[in-house]
Amino acid sequence: MMKVMIVEDDPMVATINQQYIERSEGFHTIAAVGTITEVWEALTMDIPNLILLDVYLPGQTGLEFLQELRQKQYSIPVIMITAADDIGTIKTSLEYGVIDFLIKPFTYQRFKVAIDNFMQYHKLTTSMEKTDQETLDQLLIKEKTPISSRNNNVLTPLPKGLSKLTLKKVLQAIEKQTHAFSTEDIASSIDLSRISTRKYLQHLNDIGFLESELKYLSVGRPIMIYHVVPNKEHLIVDYK
Question: Which residues form the Response regulatory domain (predicted)?
Answer without folding.
Answer: 3-119
